[in-house]
From TrEMBL:
SMART domains per record: HTH_LUXR, REC
This protein's name: DNA-binding response regulator
Organism taxonomic ancestry: Bacteria, Bacillati, Actinomycetota, Actinomycetes, Kitasatosporales
Domain named HTH luxR-type: residues: 146-211
InterPro entries given in the database record: CheY-like_superfamily, NreC/VraR/RcsB-like_REC, Sig_transdc_resp-reg_C-effctor, Sig_transdc_resp-reg_receiver, Tscrpt_reg_LuxR_C, WalR-like
Signal peptide: none
Assigned keywords, A-Z: DNA-binding, Phosphoprotein, Transcription, Transcription regulation
């Protein structure tokens, strides 16, 4: 299901997804309509695998989409949610991840034209994984070394952390950074140690743990 007040973008996404073999159950222009069609689908036992929703929609164009995304996460946790935003909005990105990052994604709208990247993010959230735009992660990680424990990380550890925050597995990080998987595991252990997260474990937990240290 799609929710975006831009008719051009909405219809463009419908056509793109249809061409890629995906079925779009509904495409609406505001958050209230999205929740209404989801409620109807749930009653009929036809919940979608994922929802794509814009952060800012009518009537106030502030955070309607974000609030709808969080409501979906609470009411139908099995549905993946991919949030689209025109700009990196740090407060919204952080708020979306304060509970559980499984099946959650945050992507800049510019990435939609990069079809493979958009489809990859949608596939990830629909299968219960995380998908975060690399630019969103980069800006969230920009904190002063003097006040942020992230400043104690080495350059390689920061690279691993950015990949983790985008939702990549250890195996995927190893391929993307051209290092061994055991090296990735060592870097991750060092990251958790420096950030005081030795007890953190699990794919989505580590993403959430990283983002909880970002602040707003």
């Amino acid at each position: 299901m799609l929710a975006d007040d831009s008719i051009l973008l909405r219809e463009g996404l419908v056509r793109l997804l249809a061409e890629e073999g995906h079925e779009v159950a509904a495409a609406v222009g505001d958050a209230d309509q999205l929740i209404a069609v989801l409620e109807q689908a749930a009653e009929q036992g036809q919940k979608p695998d994922a929802v794509v929703v814009d952060v800012r929609m009518p009537p106030t164009h502030t955070d309607e989409g974000l609030r709808a995304a969080m409501q979906i996460r609470e009411r139908w946790p099995g549905i993946g949610v991919l949030v689209l935003s025109q700009y990196v909005e740090r407060r919204y990105a952080t708020e979306l991840l304060t509970d559980d990052s499984e099946g959650v994604g945050y992507l800049l709208k510019d990435r939609v034209v990069q079809v493979d990247e958009f489809l990859d993010a949608l596939e990830r959230v629909s299968t219960g994984k995380a998908a975060f735009d690399s630019e969103v992660v980069r800006q969230l990680l920009m904190r002063s070394r003097r006040s942020d424990p992230l400043g104690t990380l080495t350059a390689r550890e920061k690279e691993v952390l950015r990949e983790m925050a985008q939702g990549h597995t250890n195996a995927a990080i190893a391929v993307r950074l051209h290092i061994s998987q055991s090296a990735v595991e060592k870097h991750i252990n060092a990251i958790f140690d420096k950030l005081g997260l030795v007890g953190a474990s699990g794919y989505s937990r580590r993403v959430l743990a990283v983002l909880r240290y970002l602040g707003t």
